């Protein structure tokens, strides 16, 4: 910390005053001692073992002290002055810190308390910087959440408005009898029906997403075989995979992998991952699911070949309403919530889900605690 000129003068003045006070104390003690010696000569002579104290005290003045005694008294005075100035310096440090804190409190959160501080004050300054940093992080997180809410409203509005516009348009044509035949009217009704199903899928996914995002959601834990569960999920997708010229294979280190979890929600996780692999694994032919045990955790990898994702897409995959395709068309029948829901369910089970690209494969790794019964 750099002292101002005024503070330096105050310290110098205080040093002089302190030295004067110490000298007066020395003088007072010396005079009291001389009075005591001259007044009680007999008593002092009986207990004094260092020469003729009466002659020494009577003939010696304060400034005539021996060099050794003078050096001793000077050291004591120096220590007292240093201690006094050190305390005053600490007060100036606190004054500077308080002034800087008031500046930070005005909204200058990037500002840091200037100067080098040691001891307890240094620890206090470091704690203040940590507190300010955590406050900035909390504010950034709050700003990010607010922005995310705005994006959520925008995306929901877009995804609902598009099919809703089509529904109103086709039903309006029927309402106004603007169709040439009953066949054309049925076509309009069918199109409106498909668009309504898209809206329902979006609303259902949105409801499930908001539900699983709540950390207080109770989980219905049961004991089950993960290998058998994955085989059942794969069977559900066999027909769709055949239509798209893909095959689904499951490999496991053991025939059975017993664990505890909410099976209904876990099924949704792998349902979403397989659905994602079938929709976006363009020009691919294989979907591989591998299961292995890592200590007390179960690792499940779902990977597909075909078109891989960019690094930017990998970083945003688990964001709600994100789609790897730049347009927000409904051609892939996706709401953009599937992976976000999968991530939330895995996190509810104290697990972790990540995505990566390796050797032409897009790989989703799911890590779940086994919690065996």
From TrEMBL:
Q: Can you tell me which residues the record assigns to a coiled coil?
A: none
- Which InterPro entries does the record associate with it? HATPase_C_sf, HATPase_dom, His_kinase_dom, HisK_dim/P_dom, HisK_dim/P_sf, HssS/ArlS-like, Sig_transdc_His_kin-like_C
Subcellular localization(s) per the UniProt record: Cell membrane
The protein's annotated catalytic reaction(s) are: ATP + protein L-histidine = ADP + protein N-phospho-L-histidine
May I have one GO cellular component term?
A: plasma membrane
Give the transmembrane ranges. Answer: 12-33, 62-85
Q: What is its main location?
A: membrane
Q: Which UniProt keywords apply?
A: ATP-binding, Cell membrane, Kinase, Membrane, Nucleotide-binding, Phosphoprotein, Transferase, Transmembrane, Transmembrane helix, Two-component regulatory system
EC number(s) recorded for this UniProt protein: 2.7.13.3
Protein's recorded name: histidine kinase
Organism, by scientific name, is Alkalibacterium kapii
According to the entry, what is the taxonomic lineage of the organism? Bacteria, Bacillati, Bacillota, Bacilli, Lactobacillales
